[in-house]
Amino acid sequence: MNYLELAQCFEEQNSSEHYHQNSEVLHIKNTIESILNNNTKQLLFLTGEPGVGKSAFLNYIEEQFSYDIIKFDIPFLEPIDFVKILIQKTQTEVANYSLEELIKQVISLYQNSNYIVVLDEAQLLSKDMIEIIRILADSKAFWFILAMHEHESKKILKEPQFASRPHKVLQLQNISIQECKEYIFTELQNKNATMLAGEITKKHIKTIYKLSKGNMRVLKKLLFTSFLLIDYAQKNDKQRYKNFNKCILTMAAIDTGLINA
Amino acid sequence: MHNFDDLQKRCKIYTIKKNLKYLLILILFLVLAFYFYNRTNNLTDTKTGNENKTITASHTVKNPPVKNLPVKNLPVKNPPVKKETKKTTVTKEKKRPVVIEESKKIATKAKKYSLQFLVASPRYINRIKKEKKHLETLGFSNCKLQQSAVYIHLTCNESDTLKKLDPYIELAKRKNIDYIIRTQNNDAVQQEAVVEEEKIKETVQETVLPIIKVQNADTQELQKRFAQTPNYAVALVIARNYYKKGDYKKAIIWAKKANQLNKSDAESWIIYAKSLYALHQDTKAKQLLHIYLQYENSDAVENLLKQWEHTQ
After folding, report:
1. Among partner residues B4, B10, B17, which is closest to A232 by beta-carbon distance?
2. Are both B205 and B80 inside the same structural domain?
3. What is the CATH number of the domain that holds B304?
4. Which domain does B21 fall in, by range?
5. Cα distance from A213 to chain B (closest Cα, Å)?
6. Among A151, B157, B198, B294, which is least packed, fewest CB within 10 Å?
């Protein structure tokens, strides 16, 4: 069994191919769809702990939804560049206008369309950018989905420009132990490593869950390191560490900083 | 993975630390459990100790301690035998309370020693026999029912030296059985109490039960006792006393009374016949003994008859 390949399958990836659908994800996806179908255009906030899978979820819905999505992964934008990008997406040439005139242009361009503007790491947006988003949201030309960290979102949502406007907050939570188990076994099955599934006992799953607390990024990191360690042990003939066991898990947890030893 | 060995070490240290935590919790738990167990035991011991104190006190009240008084000089005149019986019976029925006893061996002229567990009237013979069986099952050996003038004494482990009794004293203590060391010589029956150390007063005091000399018991007293509880042995002692005094008519009366209670024992017949003989009714006396011999064999009776024939 090639543990290096297995390790790679738990490597941090944002591609929708490897996205694991759990009940929580499906619930949020359905809620968003229902809001898009039944409500007027407004702001949607997707919040969750770092590593819970917000970015992956945004990538996932990009492919799943029938709506046109304009996604901004890097929020370090000047308001004028943000508006220009939106104009360029419609294959329209950007004139050398002032910001005010560009905003009017972009609103007129998208007025009758059904576009969703998705902004990841929205907690890093500048005040000017937040103002532009507010103006565009008020124009009802776009749907906005702003993904941000749970902690910062509380502060941003308290700002008067958002608090006084119609908006919806969707919270993505950590996965359960059952979902954790399903995720691991599905990934192993995808890699034709069902034999290894027998090596990972209930106790191991419990330990993995306890260490990762259901956070997808931590979980992946833990498994990735574990398989790398097994790969190293096999290549260097470390007898006790050639298979998946508690000791390997502890070593991976120490390496990833989950255990302070 | 260049830090594999380092991770390995850290993992081992972490596992040891983690297990140590559980081990400490376990040790703490065991220590607490042991502490509480000891505490509970101490409480029980204190309770038992209190009971002992009460019992010791009751003993000292009934039999005040006699300080530095040699056993052989103990003045005992017609001791309250009945009281003694009562006491023995009561202690026996009171679940045999624990008595803290430090056995001090008393030097006497006695030749045989035994452990006496019970003194009771012959009418309780069945219960005495039951008690004897019970003692034998507990491990006491050579248990005997010894009949004195009035009472039956249940004794076990008769031996020549006090030392031989030590293991049985230990056994009695272990089983919480009340006992006294009985010393016997040829002249009379003596009972010696075990000296008890009183812890409450923190002074060493010797408690010695009085010596009982049944044979010297007052005839009037014995008659009163017989009126309350008719008993062959008592009647016989009274008859014997009257015979010794020369009051042959009364000796005959009491020998008859004894004979009504036990016809098979030769003693009452002998006193009756001797009294008749003393009153010069030789033929009647001899006839009486011949009648007895038709039913029972007795060397004493035959010897007496031979003796009378020789004197004639």
Report:
1. B4
2. yes
3. 1.25.40.10
4. 1-62
5. 20
6. B294
3-class DSSP state of A143? strand
Q: Which residue of B has its CA nearest to A229?
A: B1
Last residue of a domain, one of B214, B230, B253: B214
**What is the count of structural domains for chain B?**
3
Edge-to-edge, what's the strand order for the sheet holding A68-72? A68-72, A115-119, A142-149, A43-48, A167-171
Q: Are residues B140 and B83 in the same domain?
A: yes
**Of B196, B214, B232, which residue sits at a domain end?**
B214
pTM: 0.50
Q: Do B159 and B236 fall within a single domain? A: no
- Judgement on whether residues B167 and B229 belong to the same structural domain of the protein: no
Structure tokens given for A192: 């034709």
Are B104 and B30 within one domain?
no
| CA nearest to B308, candidates B292, B296, B284 | B284
Claim to verify: residue B185 and residue B80 sit in the same structural domain: yes
Residues B227 and B207 in one domain: no
- Which residues in chain B are closer than 8 Å to A251, comparing Cβ atoms? 4, 7-8, 10-11
pLDDT tens per residue across all 312 residues of chain B: 558 889 989 999 998 988 998 999 999 999 999 999 988 877 665 555 444 443 333 333 334 333 333 333 334 344 443 444 344 433 344 444 444 444 444 444 446 888 888 888 887 888 888 888 888 888 888 888 888 777 888 888 888 888 888 888 888 888 888 888 887 754 333 443 333 434 433 433 444 444 344 445 678 888 888 888 888 888 999 999 999 989 999 999 999 999 888 888 888 999 999 999 999 898 999 988 998 888 888 888 988 988 888 876
Q: Are residues B192 and B277 in the same domain?
A: no
Structure tokens at B70: 């040699």
* Cβ–Cβ gap B11/A261 under 8 Å: yes
| DSSP letters for A69-115 | EEEES-----HHHHHHHHHHTTTPPPPS--HHHHHHHHHHHHTTS-E
Q: With beta carbons less than 8 A apart as the criterion, state whether A35 and A28 touch.
A: no
